[in-house]
Amino acid sequence: MDADELTQSVWDISKDEFPDGSPLGEQAKFLLHYAILAPSSHNSQPWRFAVRDEAIEISYDETRWLEVADQDKRELFISIGCALENLCIAAEHFNIGYEITYRADEDDDLVSTVTLERDSEPSSNRPPELFDELTERYTSHQLFEDQALPREARERFRRVIETDDVTLYLIDDPEQKRSIGELQADADEAQMADPAYRKELGYWVGTGALGSSWLMARIGQAVVSHFDLGDREGRKNSKLIERAPVIALLATHADTPTARVKTGQVFERLALLASAEDIAVHPMSQVLERPETRTELAARTGTGEEIPQHLFRLGHVEEERTHTPRWPLEAVSSTEQ
């Protein structure tokens, strides 16, 4: 897909334009404007949507799979789960019911089917304020302030996922954070030492998908692709982890594609709730991209038989919220009615 198609305009959605009274297929297309605002690894946006009457099929686009960094497609399925969650939240806001059929464990690119139902009362544990955060949520890469997360916010995080098959670990012990920071540095150094990893990362930097201008994206691509910056990145990212008030980890008993999709749904719900609480969020994926550090992370965080799926920082920071660009909806969707 041509990087020139990337745009910031997709973030400007007016809920007043919802086609109330139109067929469900038309309403489904409107809901997808919110789905494409979901976060994804490297902002790769690996989703495709097909509207078929009252059903929305969500598939993955293998051309946007990070084959080196994400060899088992863990991050791809988590990214799809984030988009699925946005879709569900938008549907509930407009009083559209839905039924999710998970298909990710089957041997094709179809991840899930969402069948819409008219005039259905929401029956989930999603707080209504999450809808307004769909266009406000952002990812922070800054050093967080030395300010503890309120107990009330932590309790809300736990309540909002209590019916899911995903466990949330909130880690604030300084020694444990230091240990995770060491793992982060090890993972950064190992990843950046791999020329194939640097080439892949450089490609995504170069597309401008991470929000840089065309010139800065091209310069960044050249630097990342040709220089091993692992030591520098390791020091920077380990500091980000050690100084964060809370490190959050999502883990599951199963390590299947469906478990990863559900992890993405939970993460996006937490990220939107954090946005409503004015708490910044920053995923840290490198530790989970290497089997040896992923296994060690489980040992250091005490997840037992549960398998780490997603690691991210939570904290406070004073900064302007900025959004990364998205491909327009017509580039990632189709309609068959």
Count of DSSP helices? 12
CATH class bucket of the largest domain: Alpha Beta
Under CATH, the topology of the largest domain can be stated as: NADH Oxidase
**Strand order of the biggest β-sheet:** 3-4-2-1-9
Secondary-structure class: alpha+beta
Terminal CA distance: 25 Å
Number of domains: 2
Number of strands: 9
CA gyration radius, whole angstroms = 19 Å
**Mean pLDDT over all positions:** 90
Uncertain parts: none
- Considering the protein shown, what is the CATH homologous superfamily of the largest domain? putative nitroreductase (tm1586), domain 2
What fraction strand?
15-25%
The biggest sheet amounts to: 5 strands, mixed
InterPro entries: Nitroreductase-like, Nitroreductase/BluB
Protein name: Acg family FMN-binding oxidoreductase
Organism: Haloplanus litoreus
What does this structure look like?
With 337 residues, this protein is α+β, with helices and mostly antiparallel strands. It folds into two domains: 3-138 and 323-336, NADH Oxidase, CATH 3.40.109; 151-193 and 228-315, NADH Oxidase, CATH 3.40.109. The chain contains twelve helices and nine strands. The protein has helices spanning 24-35, 74-93, 130-133, 151-159, 174-192, 195-206, 214-226, 230-243, 257-276, 286-289, 291-301, 329-332, and strands at 47-52, 55-60, 97-102, 110-117, 167-171, 246-252, 280-283, 307-315, 333-336. The strands form two sheets. The protein has a five-stranded mixed sheet with strand order 3-4-2-1-9. It has a four-stranded antiparallel sheet with strand order 5-6-8-7, with helices on both faces. Helix 5 (174-192) runs antiparallel to helix 8 (230-243) and helix 5 (174-192) packs antiparallel against helix 11. The mean pLDDT is 90. This is Acg family FMN-binding oxidoreductase. It comes from Haloplanus litoreus.
